[in-house]
Amino acid sequence: MEQEKLYQKISTRLGELKKLAPMKEDMSIAQLLDEKGISRRDFMKWAAGMTAMLSLPSSFTPLMAQAAELSDRLPVVWLHMAECTGCSESLLRTDAPGIDSLIFDYISLEYHETLMAAAGWQAEHNLEQAIEKYKGKYILMVEGGIPAGDSDFYLTVGPHGTTGREHALKASESAAAIFAIGTCSSFGGVQAAYPNPTNAQGLSKITNKPVINVPGCPPSEKNIVGNILHYILFGTLPALDAYSRPKWAYGLRIHDLCERRGRFDAGEFVQEFGDEGAKKGYCLYKVGCKGPYTFNNCSRERFNQHTSWPVQAGHGCIGCSEPDFWDAMGPFEEPLGDRLYSTLYGLGADATADKVGVALLSATAVGIAAHAAIAAFKGAPKDEE
Ligand code: SF4
Ligand code: SF4
Question: What SS3 class is residue 21?
Fold first, then answer.
């Protein structure tokens, strides 16, 4: 019954969006898919995957497909602050664009400094026009940390020499929804690493408006597009965790669904890169994997059209979607060892998932030794601490 009501509610919202004029009259999603050689069948498979990713019942797949088709109805303003542009680049520069990248091509990007042809006065004018024309209706996506306070001037944008902070604040005022894309915009990122000379901050620290954080260095294309689709479907904020990350994407740890998890539980660890354990796909914890402390969906959704992800490729997770990861998670190729690391859900974040891991992750040296002892006792390969 609840499901039916929700289905109806979303259908009504999509029906309203459909009445709005498409912003790209010369392009439809069907044409775009056709041009790229993507069949309708593959598009529906993708829609089914996105539906599952947002934890919706599979019967909602047609609604998801419709939401993608209507993604050109909502204007998007994308600002760059202090960052490397890696979040945009990772989404746009794939040599075999998946449907997620195509959706990004299809949405109505009214302003994006990396992609637009305009520069200088013209660019500034375009931004002002977009904000005025779509007041209260546009989605604002901000990439990059923002120098704040006395350090505002470390980032100036455009011919008026507006500070990044002023720029972001002005665009935030009239936005319908605000997304901080990437770890820099969510939490300050590498700019905010000690000693943070520019006093870089996440977007939520400089505006009073609600900000949905989509961290990652970079965030996966699925998490960026998934947030846009969620907004199109519901028109409201998703359920968020204490760091304002959508729970549908950041609700579980990397460790929870990692394909090497069985190795972890069996005490089978890579001791150094290139050893026998590495060849056999052992757990990467002892060469620095921060998956047990990191909330993100990489182990489930993967990257590059679901082909692979860092742990599959043989390197541990470096914890890129957590606040202050540059300071808190380093050195990246060493375990946190016996340092206590407090995550969102407490020390080690492991209260429910694995009882052995509770000890292991809050006092790793002791835990790993225990695992090794258990493994040795069972006759499994022994790992030295
Ligand atoms: S520690 Fe890393 S490699 Fe090992 S199971 Fe957890 S996430 Fe996977
Ligand atoms: S595996 Fe870890 S470091 Fe890599 S993208 Fe995911 S959260 Fe970031």
Answer: coil
